[in-house]
Amino acid sequence: MTNQVKTRKKRDTHEKRQVILEGAVKVFIESGYDVSSMDKIAEVAGVSKRTVYNHFQSKENLFQAVVNDFLKQRDQQKPIEYSKTRSLEEQLKEFAEAELYLIDDPIRRGLSKFLTSVFVMDIEFGKKVRGQVKSPHESFINWLNSAQADGKLQFQSVQLAAQIFYGLVEGCLTYNALFSDGASLKFKEPILTELVSTFVSRYGVE
Amino acid sequence: MTNQVKTRKKRDTHEKRQVILEGAVKVFIESGYDVSSMDKIAEVAGVSKRTVYNHFQSKENLFQAVVNDFLKQRDQQKPIEYSKTRSLEEQLKEFAEAELYLIDDPIRRGLSKFLTSVFVMDIEFGKKVRGQVKSPHESFINWLNSAQADGKLQFQSVQLAAQIFYGLVEGCLTYNALFSDGASLKFKEPILTELVSTFVSRYGVE
DNA sequence: ATATTACACTGTACAGTGTAGTTTAATTAT
DNA sequence: ATAATTAAACTACACTGTACAGTGTAATAT
Predict the structure, then answer these.
(1) What is the pLDDT of residues A146-166, one digit of tens each?
(2) Does residue A25 or residue B76 have the better pLDDT?
(3) What does R_g of chain B's alpha carbons equal in angstroms?
């Protein structure tokens, strides 16, 4: 005899899960991991604490889910292909703008801040998470190689050139935005232009 | 009649205070503000918890003292003067190295990490603290103006040029060191050279 | 039948205090 | 100079109150 078990279609709990995640994001962003209590998260999500624990085993677990969600979003950016016809400046600016995607919206910027505070104090965890994500540098390195093959750029080491570019973007824009909660982005245009122009001064051919 | 009170010279408690501060630094660096307990700090400092509270009113207070100590140290760097005879590259490298002072020693780097985690989650506090400290940019801006007056550099906006330089240094070196706990500093030399060279490509005359 | 809620409850960790006794060092007496 | 005196600094330890992670359960909503 087969072990026939009456099974019933489970209800869709996706919505509640999402509500909890959004609440968790709000609270984590507001106060950081340690200060955020599960009671507060439940309250902000508009859900009983027990329901939070029915969806997520533990606070650690909920945090991981928040991180994974964020990384999934981040990975959905489409790569930028090298174009022979468009100007270098225009294309470089696109790479820079793509990097700013993480900080130009209050929630994504909040998460970036929050994760910065976590990663900087837990190097191992930060390394682990960064290992799960494909770095935007890869795509840029391909672009740089194409530009060199096309005779528009000239460099000794692609790695070094890529580090200079992302250093410029992050150092001049990303981190300032994180520490000013986005206020510095009001003046981003001149910096963006200057930074691209600096890169081209160094590596552009004539 | 004067209210003559037999007063006794107070004992020097500077040493204990210092021991407590050092213990607090160790513990804060290790775990961040919220996770660090006053019991743990007392234990690491080798001092009774009551003594900690005899020196510092509260945990918040102790934290402030740690921050002030760190800022005092940071302020003691001597300014770099413009020289007509030394090469631009050499002098720029000195500015970059001065910036790396904050992260080239494990304890200072630990404190930089710790403060980054605090400031990024409490913008107002970060602003307040940064307002108390004279920025190294000021000194660099003077240098840039001297170099322009000397006909060696050429730029539209000093502010922008300074932002590019510190963006390069922080983006390429400082933050990577923070997130890798200094591991990235092993390869700092080529980056330092490249970054200075990039800056000179953009703003150098001929 | 499954998901959710309200609510009470456990255990733990921790900031901060109170106190009584001990150590240390500046002052005073020898 | 040396020893006794004394107040300041320190320690051990018990204690208060609070906040919070996580659980158990019975009732309710879907």
Answers:
(1) 999 999 999 999 999 999 999
(2) A25
(3) 22
Question: Is B117 an interface residue toward A (CB < 8 Å)?
Answer: yes
Annotated domain spans of chain B: 14-70, 77-203
Q: Kindly report which listed range (A40-49, A114-123, A137-146, B73-82) carries the lowest average pLDDT score.
A: B73-82
**DSSP labels, B172-204:** IIIHHHHHHTTGGGGGHHHHHHHHHHHHHHHHB
As a whole number of angstroms, the distance between CA A100 and CA A97 comes to 5
Q: For residue B130, give the nearest of A119, A110, A184 by alpha carbon.
A: A184
User: Hey, how many other C-beta atoms are within 10 angstroms of the C-beta on A60?
Assistant: 10
Residue at shortest CA–C1' distance from C26: B9
Taking residues A13-27, report their average pLDDT.
95
Q: Do B150 and B84 form a contact (C-beta atoms < 8 A)?
A: yes
Flag residues 34-63 of B with CB < 7 Å from strand C: 35-40, 49-50, 53, 57-60
Q: Residue B118: list chain A partners with CB under 8 A.
A: 117
Torsion of CA A21, A27, A33, A38, to 10 degrees: -70
Give me the percent of chain A exceeding a pLDDT of 70. Answer: 95
A100 at interface of B, judged by CB pairs closer than 8 A = no
Calculate the angstrom distance between C1' of D25 and CA of A111: 37
Q: Cα–chain-centroid distance for residue A13?
A: 27
Size of interface A-B (CB pairs under 8 A): 113
As a rounded value in angstroms, the CA-to-C1' distance for A95 and C17 is 57
Nearest to B175 among A113, A123, A170 (CB): A170
Task: Note whether A119 contacts B167, CB cutoff 8 Å.
Answer: no
Q: Is it true that domain B77-203 has CATH number 1.10.357.10? A: yes
| pLDDT at residue A4, as a whole number | 45
**Summary mean pLDDT of chain A:** 93
Q: Which residues lie closer than 8 Å to A176 by C-beta, 6 or more apart?
A: A184
* Closest-CA residue of chain A to B177: A120
State how far Cα B58 lies from the chain centre: 24
Chain C nucleotides close to protein (CB under 7 A) are 1-8, 13-19, 24-28
Instruction: Inform me whether the C-beta atom of residue A142 falls under 8 Å from chain B C-beta atoms.
Output: no
Query: Which CATH number, 1.10.10.60, 1.10.10.10, 3.40.50.720, 1.10.260.40, labels domain A14-70?
Result: 1.10.10.60
